[in-house]
Small ribosomal subunit protein bS20
Amino acid sequence: MAITKGAKKANRSSLRKRVFNLRRKNALTDSVKEVRKLIATGAKAEAEKNLAAAYQAIDKAAKRGVIKSNTAARKKSRLVAAINKIK
């Protein structure tokens, strides 16, 4: 448990930031899952349409430090590769 005044303030701050980080991460996973589901069904046009939203969620998460930039690049690359694999 935090003892000093500064540690208590840092704890409150980290709890507030945690909410925003979880929200950002959930948006990321939901958008990627949606594109993956469309890829699995073979709906290439719909997957390409939702790819922009997934890119936006990935980039925002990387910008805020929720995921690292290389992880973001890898996720985007794998999504595009999976879409291109659809006949």
User: Anything to note?
Assistant: The CA atoms of residues 12 and 80 lie 40 Å apart.
